[in-house]
Write a structure and sequence with these properties.
By secondary structure, this protein is mostly helical. It is built from two helices and no strands. One of its GO terms (biological process) is spermatid development.
C-alpha cells in the first residue's frame, strides 16, 4: 500500500510544484507586461522629447548659421578694412620714400651741376678759341669720337676673338693629325712585326714541308717495292 501511494504522492508534489511554477510564471509575466507598459510609455515620451529636441536643434542650427554668417561677414568686412588701411599706410610709406629719394637725387644733381660748372666754363672758352660755334657742337664731336673709338675697340676685339678661334681650330686640327700620324706609325710598326714574324715562321714550315715531301717519296718508293714484290709472288 505504501508502494502504491508513493507515486501518487510524488505526482501530487509534481503537480503542486507545477502549479507553483505556473503561478510564479504568471506573476513574472504580469510584472513583465507592467514593465513593458512602463517602457512603452517611456519610449513614447523619449520619442516626443527627441522630436522636441530635433525641432530645437534645427531652430538653434538656423540661428547659429545666421549668427555665424553675420559674424563671418563682419570678420570679412573688418579684414578688408584692415587690409585697406595697411595698403594705404604702405602706399603712404612708399610715397614718402619716393619723395625722400627724389629729394636726395635733386640734391645730388644740384651738387653735380655745381661741381661741373667749371667744365661748362671750360667748354665756353674752347668754343671761343676753336672752329665750333656752340658748346653742343663740341659735345656732338666728342660723342662721335667716342663712338668711333668704341667701334674700333669692338672691331679689334672681334678680330682678336676670330684670331684666337682660328688658332684654337688650327691647334685642334694639328693635334688630330699628329694623333692620326702616330696611330699610323704604330700600325706600321705592328705590321712590320707581324711581317717579320711571318718571315721567321716560313723557314720551319718550309723545312717541315720538305720533310713531308721526303717522307712521302720514301713511302711511295716503299709502296712501289711492295707492289712489285706482291706481283712477283702472285706470278
Amino acid at each position: 500500500e505504501e508502494d502504491s501511494l508513493s507515486p501518487f504522492i510524488r505526482l501530487q508534489e509534481k503537480k503542486k510544484q507545477a502549479r507553483l511554477m505556473q503561478k510564479a510564471l504568471e506573476v513574472k509575466e504580469e510584472a513583465f507586461k507592467e514593465r513593458m507598459k512602463v517602457i512603452t510609455c517611456r519610449w513614447r515620451d523619449l520619442h516626443a522629447k527627441e522630436a522636441q529636441l530635433k525641432t530645437y536643434m534645427e531652430k538653434s542650427g538656423r540661428t547659429l548659421k545666421e549668427n555665424d554668417k553675420m559674424r563671418i561677414q563682419a570678420l570679412k568686412k573688418a579684414s578688408k578694412e584692415r587690409e585697406r588701411k595697411i595698403q594705404k599706410e604702405s602706399e603712404l610709406l612708399r610715397a614718402k620714400r619716393e619723395l625722400e629719394a627724389l629729394r636726395n637725387k635733386h640734391q645730388k644733381l644740384s651738387n653735380k651741376v655745381q661741381k661741373y660748372s667749371i667744365f661748362h666754363k671750360y667748354l665756353e672758352d674752347v668754343v671761343k678759341i676753336s672752329q665750333f660755334e656752340e658748346i653742343q657742337e663740341v659735345i656732338w664731336r666728342y660723342k662721335t669720337l667716342v663712338r668711333v673709338h668704341k667701334d674700333l675697340l669692338q672691331a679689334q676685339l672681334e678680330h682678336k676673338e676670330m684670331s684666337d678661334q682660328a688658332k684654337v681650330l688650327l691647334d685642334q686640327y694639328t693635334a688630330e693629325k699628329e694623333a692620326e700620324i702616330l696611330q699610323c706609325k704604330n700600325e706600321l710598326v705592328q705590321l712590320q712585326l707581324r711581317f717579320d714574324q711571318a718571315q721567321s715562321d716560313i723557314l720551319p714550315w718550309e723545312t717541315c714541308w720538305a720533310d713531308i715531301q721526303n717522307t712521302t717519296a720514301k713511302r711511295s718508293l716503299k709502296l712501289g717495292t711492295i707492289k712489285i714484290a706482291i706481283l712477283s709472288l702472285f706470278q
